[in-house]
Amino acid sequence: MATAYRRFLLLLPLLAVAVAASASHPAHEFCAAGGDASCGVGGGGGDGTRILIKGGTVVNAHLAEEADVYIEDGVVVAVRPNIPVGDDNVRVIDATGKYVMPGGIDPHTHLEMEFMGTVTIDDFFSGHAAALAGGTTMHIDFVIPVNGNLTAGLESYRRKAAKAAMDYGFHMAITKWDDEVAREMELMVKEHGINSFKFFMAYKGSLMVTDDLLLQGLQKCKSLGALAMVHAENGDAVAEGQQRMIDLGITGPEGHALSRPPVLEGEATARAIRLAKFVNTPVYVVHVMSIDAMEEIAKAKREGQRVIGEPVVSGLVLDDSWLWDPDFTIASKYVMSPPIREAGHGKALQAALSSGILQLVGTDHCTFNSTQKAFGSDDFRKIPNGVNGLEERMHIIWDSMVETGKISVTDYVRVTSTECAKIFNIFPRKGAILEGSDADIIIINPKRSFVMGAHTHHSRSDTNVYEGKKGKGMVEVTISRGRVVWEDGVLNIAPGSGEYIRMPPFGYVFDGIEKSDAAYRASLRAPVHRGKAAA
After folding, report:
1. Spatial distance between the Cα atoms of 172 and 189, rounded to a whole number of angstroms
2. Which residue spans traverse the membrane (predicted)?
3. Does this model's pTM top 0.85?
4. 520 burial via Cβ count (<10 Å: 0-12, 13-18, 19+)
5. CB contact set of 284 (below 8 Å; sequence gap of 6+)
6. What is the maximum alpha-carbon separation in the chain?
7. How far apart are CA 15 and CA 404, in angstroms?
8. How distant, in Å, are the alpha carbons of 181, 221, 252, 322, 392 from that of 370?
9. What percent of the chain has pLDDT over 90?
10. Among 55, 83, 170, 392, which one has the highest count of C-beta atoms within 10 angstroms of its own C-beta?
């Protein structure tokens, strides 16, 4: 099947219409193909389908080696030292002194999402522009059902993704439960390539699910071989905490963090883990933001339970002090849920990531501009929750984790790409530079420095939570589906050139579940056959 699928991929045409975003243009604008002369196309980004990357260190999660990489028709054809050019029509890229790595895969984004009375400012084009400029070549977005209807939600997101400029997949949120939802879940897995479902334990009155719904959802996920994901906060307690802050006259962004402390994240994480253990199904905890939640995951993993913990960039490198800034515009841009925590949590999460307690890094990219954030200027409960990160993730993890010696270059590939591909069952098509893998590749120059900010990023947001951050390790080249789409600071992308990636069920996290179920049944020593009690 894999061979046939690869042959199918080789027949796919590569779209060549280009859109450039040069440094002379505002970060949120893009030059239309065929536009004025000032819209230059960068660095030969659309110059054919054959590329040879020479002289670099090729890094996979299992190995770093000096090798060349030959790409043809969007697929990696060869990875070995000293590949001869042999043809004038091959584009040669010199990667001497640089790292050649699989493009990043972001497991957690919200593009063009209707939320809290507005819509996230980045869509499937601007979000993809930001991602590609930052070295991410695929993401998995969350489909929100329409009035609980999964099919209607999927159709809505398909329309949104028509402008996609890179590959993407979908998770599906579950916001209510009945027989129709259960039927649609099966349809999503078997016909639409969705192998994960998210349950919000927070956002009471909108997205939040109750424990009985979560339990039924976990059971259905198990039967389908789909991964259950949870936003773990105690929604009832959060609602109480929010009202407590309002009663105390605390209405600013600091009230957001104070109303949903780490203990509520830890409680919900523990509850979700225990329910998953009761069902005996894997569970994936999204945006782990606190020591409290991380320790619950660590405990469960020590006991052999299949729990995946996903920290996000903001939780790893930021602290909540910004929420107390006297400037509302500055403070409000840091509002997200669960909240960014006080200093100390981030370092603990970094240590958990480096030791394997937490397995992969997402962003929860969910951007709103300052005008949207101002909806809550008099009441923190109305501030749209979300921060940026799609463009910044790969650079920040390199600078904060690799440059500091906390993880190796191979571990960097694992936490930013390979582990995501394995968990969601698309490895080695994605998340690797191997013969037959998709040619989603980045070239990082470890000696170059970066500076982040709203004036240079490609998100449409007018703010950036990493404003002014400096560091080392620059993504100089991004190759998506065999095309150079980012080079010399110039984007060369086309709306509609991305591909929807179907993700099959029963990934490796389900290996052995049937055997453990059988062992459980064998251990019950029941039912006990007894004679009838005397009258």
Report:
1. 10
2. none
3. yes
4. exposed
5. 196, 227, 228, 229, 230, 307, 308, 310, 423
6. 98
7. 40
8. 36, 38, 15, 15, 19
9. 89
10. 392
A 10 A CB-CB count for 455 gives: 11
Helix ranges restricted to H, 108-192: 126-133, 150-160, 179-192
Name beta bridge partners: 100.
Answer: 58, 443
Q: 24: which 2 tokens? A: 């002379």
For residue 495, cis peptide bond before it (omega within 30 degrees of 0): no
Mean pLDDT of the chain: 92
Which run of H or E residues covers position 115?
strand 114-115
Question: Torsion angle of alpha carbons 30, 36, 41, 46, nearest 10°?
Answer: 90
Amino acid, res. 491: L
Residue 388 Cα distances to 66, 312, 411, angstroms: 34, 11, 24
Instruction: Dig out the tokens for 97 from the structure.
Output: 């002194």
Please tell me the predicted confidence (pLDDT) of residue 48: 52
- CA torsion sign for 194, 338, 214, 506 is positive
DSSP β-bridge partners for residue 230: 199, 285
**Size (the chain), residues:** 535
3-class state of residue 192 by DSSP: helix
Structure tokens of 334?
A: 């840091």
Q: Which DSSP helix (H) or strand (E) runs through 522?
A: helix 513-523
Contact yes or no for 307/356 (Cβ under 8 A): no
d(C-alpha 52, C-alpha 482), whole Å: 11
Question: In the chain, which residues have pLDDT < 50?
Answer: 1-47
DSSP assignment, residue 211? H
CA distance 215 to 462: 41
DSSP 290-324: SHHHHHHHHHHHHTT--EEE--BHHHHH--GGGGG
Buried b (16+ CB within 10 A) or exposed e, 23-62: eeeebbebbeeeeeeebebbbebbeebbbbbbbbbbbbbe
How far is the C-alpha of 409 from the C-alpha of 99, rounded, in Å? 9
260 three-class SS: coil
Per-residue confidence (pLDDT) for residue 390, from 0 to 100: 98
